[in-house]
Amino acid sequence: MKKELKTSFEAGSFENFLYKFWLDERYFTPEINSKKKSFSIVIPPPNVTGKLHMGHALVNTLQDIIIRYKRMKGFNVLWLPGTDHAGIATQMVVERELKKEGKTKYDLGRENFLKIMGDWKEKYKDNIKNQLQMLGCSCDWTRERFTLDEGLSYAVRYAFVKLYKENLIYQDFYIVNWCPRCRTALSDLEVVHKEVKGKLYHILYPFKEREGGLVVATTRPETMLGDSAVAVNPKDERYKNFIGEKVILPLLKKEIPIIADENVDLEFGTGALKVTPAHDPVDFIIGKKHNLPYYLIFDEKGVINKEGGPYEGFDRFEGRRKVLEDLKKEGLLIKIEDHLHKVGHCQRCETMIEPYFSKQWFLKMEDMAKEAIKVVKSGEIKLIPSFWEKTYLEWLENIHDWCISRQLWWGHRIPAFYCTCGNIIVEMEDPKICPKCGSENLKQDEDVLDTWFSSALWPFSTMGWPEETEDLKVFFPTSLLITGFDILFFWVARMVMMSLKFTGKVPFYEVYLNGLVRDAEGEKMSKTRGNVIEPEEVCKLYGPDAVRFTLSALTSYGRDIPLSHERMEGYRNFMNKLWNASRFVLSNIEEPLPLQVDKEIPHQYILSKLQKTIKNVEDGFSLYRFDILTNEIYHFVWNEFCDWYIEISKYYLKKEKTESVKSILFFILKNILKLLHPIIPFITEEIWQKMEISKSITIEDYPEFDENLLNEGAEKVFEKFKVLISKIRAYRKSLNLGKNVRLNLFIKGERVEELKNLIEFMENVEVEVTEKEKIIEGIKDKYEDWEWLLKVQKDFLSENFLNTIKKEIEKLLCEKERIEKRLKDENFIKKAKNEVISIQKERLKEVEEKIAFFNENLKVYGE
After folding, report:
1. How many alpha carbons lie under 13 Å from residue 527 in its C-beta half-sphere?
2. Cβ distance 297 to 252 under 8 Å?
């Protein structure tokens, strides 16, 4: 070939150049008017909070593998990229940076704060784009979107207005999950429930008109400051006579009623429940049913307000300490028990959640959920692995209305305007005057929409909806979604509901839910543990191809990915192997060659194995079994092509007529590169361009299975050949015989004559193919119908050789005696674990076999 590969593979030396080349050639931008069948994916938009983590590297590698594969299979492919504003997460990160300067968002004001957020977004959006390109992601960057860009903001407003006018969006007071750190409401999905070692406090509520009182048990004694009643179950015989009476709320000395309600759990605590309607979901329901007053005792930061009387100004946990202290003084704290229970925490900042009575915006979900259930049950949307269907359906069948408002500044501001006359205006354009009273004194809602509201529109809003665009016509519904299983409800289910609602179509036909990336021991990666692996760092260390190959090889149905530096280093060695094999092929070929099929067994074998590899890889792609398809190619390249065929080809390249073997080497390498390109795009492109076949492998056709090249007979014979060669090498190693020591091989079996010269070339043996054994004694072996006898030629025998055998036998006899003694020791047998005993027995068997082997050799070669 005219162009040559560098002597050694150097990751990082060509990737940037090749990615720019792909962009310049517009290989990642599909044609709107193409006659090809469309295939599309929208990227799960990374948050603009900073840099990508290994979870992003995994999900985007898997997407790119499918995208490149489909492009090579002849589809008109769109992979639409973009980023998410990630309201809570991004605002939290920026506020943390401001705190380092001693500032808060309130010091800056909303307008200035949003300017800083915009600057942050620009910086990290570009950073994320660079990292995706470093990884080789073949996105169509001409269609890049951001959830707060003009087009998507219009789509979000359109969706809100339409849902509001259909009475699906409403505003109401309700108990929500409140994060005092982020100072916003959270949906149920944004709350992580952690098991906490807490306390159960038993508190006496004295009767108003009789001696004694009711004892209630609570995990949050500070909330008693907001109690409206004490509730008992009407079936509870212990408390039947007290229903309708009143107790005195401790500390605040208020009269509150004793009421009956079926929601009270007879088994929990004392069976008497303190009812705090503004601070507990169950209490809220009881309060509504019994028309109880709602006392909100905390402000948005979790600090006790004036409703808490003398405890005003205390943080909720400090307030708890003070309340308990005063209860103890008054003799009303009866007892304290240890109590293990699950407590909600903010998914973003891990602050303990406070159930909080608040006026919020909600979206009715029941009808939309029913439609989303139908499309999965009918198979219109397929979840992979399929066991996620049960989880998906269970959640949708028990869905609650979605709290869509967030008390943040960063995000899509709710397009609701309030007039002093009480009128609420929700339209596509900001109103100038109130249509009800004509007032110009209008104020927009301060809240923003939950980030997941805009994300739920992502598959179609990114393509220009609500306009009827060409992109929507050609690429929507999308073909596939690849994302982590942890956002099945946050995102996947919500996209299904919103897409069906607004477009009447499913957003995608298949959803592949990948596992999470963990460390080698299966532990979650965290900075605290010090086990975090950064994509940028490992791409620089091992090259993006090795990182991608590792992630693909480890990705299996329903399993997390145990990632380690050792695995990536191992797959970098695979890149070296591929590079060196390619150098060998290119150094022996002057120009591209058409395939010339040769009848000799090794050539028939490698061509047949290639076809089986192509078929197995195709099967892997059809099932999204990334591990199977990746390891299938790995095995063929390393074990079949490099370890066997390349070595064998050296024999054929020394012959006079070498065109057929050169054409086969070229054909195999060409197909290997095509098979590997979706997984490792950079190295395959670099090698491809040196082969001078076409301008880029990116737009080449993927290999097709060719049944005509299958040859089971050649495969069967060659497998025997491989066993024979391995046995000869093992024989040399056992006797410490160098390659220079010539052996005699007497062999018989089907078609062995065809491989006689090749065996001699590869193993420095003198081969005699015979139907009868020429000598009586020797080291005999067999595999299937091949039988052979090996013997060191007399010219290479020496006293030293025989002494080596004798010393080996002596050493092994000593070890045999030691193991037997140990296995007869009753103390050892009694104390040792079963697996330790099994290992010793296995070793004894191995030692006895070696002794027999060396004795046989001594018998053959000794006097």
Report:
1. 1
2. no
Other Cβ atoms within 10 Å of 187 Cβ, number: 20
Give the strand pairing for 382-384 and 508-514: parallel
Distance CA 308, CA 830 (A): 68
What would the two tokens of residue 242 be? 């007290």
Angle between helices 535-542 and 565-587 (to 10 degrees): 40
Whether the per-residue pLDDT at 267 is higher than 70: the answer is: yes
pLDDT at 655: 84
Distance CA 403, CA 453 (A): 10
Whole-angstrom distance, CA of residue 856 vs CA of residue 852: 6
Compute the chain's Rg from CA coordinates: 37
Phi, psi of 748 (to 5 degrees): -140, 150
Q: How far apart are alpha carbons 325 and 564 in whole angstroms?
A: 51
Q: Is 717 left (phi over 0), alpha (psi -120 to 50) or beta?
A: alpha
Q: Would you state the structure tokens that stand for residue 82, as one six-digit string?
A: 């973009």
* Alpha-carbon gap, residue 860 to 731, rounded angstroms: 14
Residues in the chain: 863
Q: How far is CA 796 from CA 742, 745, 766, 792, 860, in A?
A: 7, 15, 13, 7, 14
Query: Could you say which DSSP state residue 189 is in?
Result: G
* Cis ω before 544 (30° cut-off from 0): no
β-strand partners of 480: 510
pTM of the model: 0.86
- Sign of the alpha-carbon torsion through 777, 778, 783, 786: negative
Query: Is it true that the peptide bond before 385 is cis, omega within 30 degrees of 0?
Result: yes
Give phi and psi for 340, each to the nearest 5. -90, 120
The alpha helices in 598-711, defined as continuous H runs, are: 601-623, 626-635, 646-653, 659-676, 681-691
Q: 3-state SS of 80-125? A: ECEEECCHHHHHHHHHHHHHHCCCCHHHHCHHHHHHHHHHHHHHHH
Residues 6 or more apart in contact with residue 361 via CB below 8 angstroms:
169, 170, 171, 403, 404, 405, 414, 416, 447
Q: Given pLDDT bands bounded at 50, 70 and 90, which one contains residue 613?
A: very high
DSSP lists the bridge partners of residue 765 as 743
Burial of 816 (0-12, 13-18, 19+ CB in 10 A): middle
Q: CA torsion angle for 298, 300, 301, 304 (degrees, to 10)? A: -20
- If one counts every other C-beta atom within 10 angstroms of the C-beta of residue 374, the result is 12
Q: From CA 761, how far away is CA 270, in angstroms rounded?
A: 89
- 465 CB-near residues (< 8 Å, 6+ apart): 155, 457, 472, 502, 503
- What does the alpha-carbon distance between residue 426 and residue 415 come to, in Å, rounded to a whole number? 6
Residue 652 reports pLDDT greater than 70: yes
If pLDDT is split at 50, 70 and 90, which confidence band does 773 have? low
CA 747 to CA 787: how far, in whole Å?
Answer: 6
Non-local (6+) Cβ contacts of 723 within 8 A are 783, 786
